[in-house]
Amino acid sequence: MDWILMIAGLAAALVAGVFLSFSDFIMRGLIQAPASQGAAGMVGLNRTVYRSVFMVLLLGLVPVSGGLGLFALWQFEGAAPLLTLVGAVIYLIGVFAVTGMGNVPMNKRLDAMDGQPRETADYWPRYAQRWTRLNHARTFSSGIAAVCWLVAAQTV
């Protein structure tokens, strides 16, 4: 079981790294561009992410999180079950739920504005600020999940 926790932890760390890139410099770069160009860049990124390795990791960790959380209740002793369960809950809520209920609807709204420069220019500053704030939460959550699973792997 320790190798599954290790792989899940490394995958969550990779997800955290992608989110950190957006929080650290990608969004800041897009925000510095004129609104129409920043928004167009973000729409392009959002359209390409669906066919990426990142999506395999992001979505693949959802059933893995659930499975690890359930399995931890029956198989581990000591600190490992708590760490595994905490990592699973944090990933499912702080990454998957925030993405599905926050970032994705905003991405869809921005995409629907493609070709409407005035609406896009009005929406872009609010989008960029809120989307980035939500992304900070996803960065933190995936990083904490990674740490929980990697530490649990060492204590199994």
Describe this structure in words.
The protein is an all-alpha fold and 156 residues long. The chain has one domain (2-155). Helices cover 90% and strands 0% of the residues. It has 5 helices and no strands. The protein has helices spanning 2-32, 35-49, 53-75, 80-112, 117-155. The protein is elongated, with a radius of gyration of 17 Å. The mean pLDDT is 95.
Radius of gyration, rounded? 17 Å
Gross morphology: elongated
Let me know the average pLDDT: 95
Number of domains: 1
**Strand tally, please?**
0
Features:
156 residues, 5 helices, mainly alpha, elongated
Q: Concise description?
A:
The chain is mostly helical.
SSE layout and pairing:
Elements (H helix, E strand, L loop, with lengths): L1 H31 L2 H15 L3 H23 L4 H33 L4 H39 L1
Helix pairs in contact: 1-2, 1-3, 1-5, 2-5, 3-4, 4-5
